Amino acid sequence: MTPHADPEAGAAVKAADRAHVFHSWSAQGLIDPLAVAGAEGSYFWDYDGNRYLDFTSGLVYTNIGYQHPKVVAAIQEQAGKLATFAPAFAVESRSEAARLIAERTPGDLDKIFFTNGGAEAVENAVRMARLHTGRPKVLSAYRSYHGGTATAINITGDPRRWASDNGTAGVVHFWAPFLYRSPFYSTTESEECARALTHLEDTIAFEGPQTIAAIVLETIPGTAGIMTPPPGYLAGVREICDRYGIVFVLDEVMAGFGRTGTWFAAEHFDVVPDLITFAKGVNSGYVPLGGVAISAEIAATFDKRPYPGGLTYSGHPLACAAAVATIQVMEDEKVVENAARIGETVLGPGLRELAERHPSVGEVRGLGVFWALDLVRDRETHEPLVPYNATGEANAAMAAFGAACKKNGLWPFVNMNRTHAVPACNVSEAEVKEGLAALDAALAVADEWVA
Questions:
Q1: What angle, 0 to 180 degrees and rounded to 10, lies between the N-to-C axes of helices 69-81 and 317-332?
Q2: Buried (b) or exposed (e) across 209-232, using 16+ Cβ within 10 A?
Q3: Would strands 275-278 and 247-251 be described as parallel, antiparallel, or unpaired?
Q4: What is the SS3 assignment for 166?
Q5: Cβ atoms within 10 Å of 345's Cβ, excluding its own
Q6: What is the pTM of this model?
Q7: What are the tens digits of pLDDT across the range 356-400?
Q8: Cβ contact 372:366 at 8 Å
Q9: Where are the alpha helices (DSSP H) in 358-428?
Q10: Most-buried pick from 133, 224, 277, 340 (CB within 10 A)?
Q11: Mean pLDDT across the chain
Q12: Which contiguous run of DSSP H or E holds residue 366?
């Protein structure tokens, strides 16, 4: 589709939004949402005819881009055949989606519990772990995000938790490894790994291993900064969980379904958790869908004992049909392989080249089409370009950077002092180079704020 200007229609959309839509994570009177007229592939456009290369993949979920014709057709066909049906029945699209997902999960995670999204997946994974072990506590990391529902937000380790954290959710936070901003004063990845595992063991010892149901980690933390764990860390967590009878949960809501260049990010680390949560890329977000992939041992807990959880729209036929079509597209068009190749040969090298020329870039990190630029005022001290959780004038440097991206036709993913490069998994080499050029210009603006 070709963008065309229709400002009058855009004004009507904007007026209705401002009058009636209550937006997530926002002070309602301080936001000015863009009115979107359409989207296709890696681009979307507004009613003034401005087109943007989407380096956010929506919220890191349009893994096959916008409006893929095969997935749109599959949703239309399913709507004509069976638009909805209750979750207690066996339905073709639901069964097939579960089969295709189970074929791609690591190890014996062969049972799939469907949810409407990632937060509900985390809610149910924790419930399963608590019921399976008979224990109350959950351990999770600072610098993490697991969703906005009651349990998921308490497991979250970033400031979005604060307003809803009443301290009674049975969640204990610990420091996961992050060498660039190491809480352990490490100087090498091996030191960071060893010290982070020691810290985790100490936390378990003082909390009481017999009280801990689960450890929940993002395989590669997403919104918190795309911090790839050092070699051996996730394997070490797996060993600790096995030793104490703790359920190991990997949250792959953002990192799963091709984002890192493998079907699941756990494959990079040769580790198999007891539960994996997923959503987003499973059907490119075309219809809301998430779920939990469950190991044989935990699934067996509920063979004769009812699982006390469910959702009216669990395994919704339209969502599952979109998942089946998305997975087939990813196979047929080698989307996962494209993400790996683009990351290794174009996006990763391009971002590192930008870092060499821009003093505002402190570190580049990532895999596949899942990258972060850590922006700093001082490369030597690693002082962030803006303070932690900055708002208003304190966040001026990142606001100026984001505005420069948009001025150059790039829609950026900006969080705190970072920008993330997370385009669609089927993004082309030319599109990535276009995005890198826009980032180059915007980083020149960020450079003006370097001490």
A1: 150
A2: beebbbbbbbbbbbbbbbbbbbeb
A3: parallel
A4: coil
A5: 12
A6: 0.96
A7: 999 999 999 999 999 999 999 999 999 999 999 999 999 999 999
A8: yes
A9: 396-407
A10: 277
A11: 96
A12: strand 361-367
Q: Which residues contact 202 (CB under 8 A, 6 or more apart)?
A: none
Coil, helix or strand for 373? strand
Instruction: List phi, psi (to 5°) of 307.
Output: -80, 120
| Pair 294, 268: CB distance under 8 Å | no
Quick one: average pLDDT of 316-333? 98
CA–CA distances in Å: residue 293 to residues 203, 213, 273, 296: 27, 17, 10, 10
Return the closest-CA partner of residue 143 out of 223, 25, 228.
Answer: 223
Listing DSSP states for 137-154 in one string gives EEEEESS----SSHHHHH
Listed residue (295, 341, 311, 319) closest to 129, CA to CA: 295
- The greatest distance separating any two alpha carbons of the chain, rounded to the nearest whole angstrom, comes to 64
Nearest to 200 by CA among 234, 166, 228, 149: 234
- Edge-first strand listing for the sheet containing 410-411: 36-40, 43-46, 51-54, 410-411
Decide: 336 and 262 in contact? Cβ < 8 Å: yes
Tokens of 28: 């309602």
Q: Is residue 209 pLDDT above 70, yes or no?
A: yes
DSSP 11-69: HHHHHHHHHH---TTS-GGG--PPPEEEEEBTEEEETTS-EEEESSHHHHT-TT-B--H
- The CA distance from 436 to 417, in Å, is 18
What pairs with residue 173 in β-bridges?
A: 140
- Rounded Cα–Cα distance for residues 398 and 412 (Å): 11
Helices and strands per DSSP (H, E), number in the chain: 14, 16
CA angle, 22 then 419 then 450, to 5°: 120
CA distance 322 to 407: 34
Burial of 409 (0-12, 13-18, 19+ CB in 10 A): middle
The tokens describing 239, both together, are 């060993």
CA 38-318-260 angle, to 5 degrees, is 70
Query: Is 213 in contact with 135 (CB distance < 8 Å)?
Result: yes
User: What DSSP designation does 187 have?
Assistant: S
